[in-house]
Amino acid sequence: MALVEINFDGIIGPSHNYAGLSPGNIASANNAGAVSQPRAAALQGVEKMRANLRLGLAQGFFLPLDRPNKAWLEGMATDMASAEPHIRAAAFSASAMWAANAATVSPAPDTADGKCHLSAANLLTMAHRSHEWTGTLAQLKLAFADEQHFAVHEPVPPPYGDEGAANFMRLCPSHDEAGLEIFVYGKSGGPFPARQHIESSKAIARAHRLDPERTLFIQQSDIAIAAGAFHNDVVAVANERVLFTHEQAFEEPEAAYAAIRTKMPEAEIVIVPADRVSLADAVQSYLFNAQLVTLPSGERALILPTEAQANGRVWSWLEEHVAGNGPIRRLVPVDVRQSMANGGGPACLRLRVVADPTTVDQRFIADEAKLDRIAGVIAEHWPDSIAPGQLGDAALIEQVQQARLALLNACDLAALA
Question: How many of the other CB atoms lie within 10 Å of CB of 266?
């Protein structure tokens, strides 16, 4: 079978809550202390995957990690009963649902050894995400265990932060052809931390055995980070020949566009001007935190949150683009409001892997029947709601852990317990 793009969505875990743990993430900060709805959140995620299948797209998934992370708490010389509230919240976080931060992925056509390379992200900038990588790496090694086709790498070591594919783009004639890999990094100094360090990006490019002539390192703009674009995928997204970007996404945009066109002359760069859609509108609507996909018909579609449709300035620009001769031909709004309230749109929820689906462990590949089974477990076992003050509740902790075990068993993945 030919190489295709598979979107692996993180199933939203039963510990999903709004603790406001992520400085620079505007939605997370604005909703800190609110009551979350883990069951509704997870079912929204399943429906997004189901909608992708019905569009004819290849779909996979990752499982929630074990929460609270008792091993991490032990390393901090505490436990859920006695931990300070911010440590308790960090141990309980369901943020691994945002699979775009799980790893950086270089497809086989781009690498010197002809394998698809995946590097787990260290996520060390934020405490609540810094302990994800061990559970994520275990899933990556299981899902992509075929060493003839995949190479799975451990994270870049400290002190250099890496937040995975959320700061990575790939342009190519088609998914199964060699492409141009673009690593976007930030520089600290503004009101919010820059989470992607250039040294991490360079290390991943070396580990993945990329051709330097087909690799770029581009700086994210300081003003975008300050506006709440804590990852590049809040202000830019790429698919095949198309780069869809906000005018203020990059520190030196004209130099970035020139470098891209030099290495890939056929690239189509769609720039949304700031006088039509401000950075504030881009961050509020998550216009760019969308899945830009190629449908089986060859038509390009933008799978974007309903918040983008509700923003008049954003939707007006999009409708004009689709009505014209632009490369994006179809808009597909999806409801992921529970994730959006924590700062994660459709693109945050998925990791893109270009591979032959038959070479992936089939337990991680979605179909309608499997999604039905997953939805049934969620409906039965996931908490209806969680308030931040409940995180130390022993009964809730037991429910969260039993819910995850029920899902692992339903997916024949008890080995991850």
Answer: 10
Q: Phi/psi at 217 (nearest 5 deg)?
A: -120, 115
Indicate the pairing of strand 168-171 with strand 116-120.
Answer: unpaired
CA–CA distance, 125 with 194 (Å, rounded to integer): 9
Per-residue pLDDT reduced to its tens digit, 275-294 = 999 999 999 999 999 999 99
List the catalytic residue out of 231, 246, 321, 381.
Answer: 231
Could you report the per-residue pLDDT of 239-266, keeping only the tens digit for each? 999 999 999 999 999 999 999 999 999 9
The answer to whether residues 308 and 286 touch, using CB atoms and an 8 Å cutoff, is: yes
- Do 99 and 62 form a contact (C-beta atoms < 8 A)? yes
93, 121, 312, 357 from 38: Cα distances, Å? 12, 25, 29, 30
Q: Is 116 a catalytic residue?
A: no
Q: Which strand (E) or helix (H) includes residue 270?
A: strand 268-272
* Active-site entry in 117, 128, 131, 163: 163
Residue linked to tokens 């690239």: 267
Residue 231 among the catalytic residues: yes
Residue with tokens 């945002």, as numbered in its chain: 98
Catalytic residue among 128, 348, 381, 411: 348
Q: Is this prediction's pTM over 0.70?
A: yes
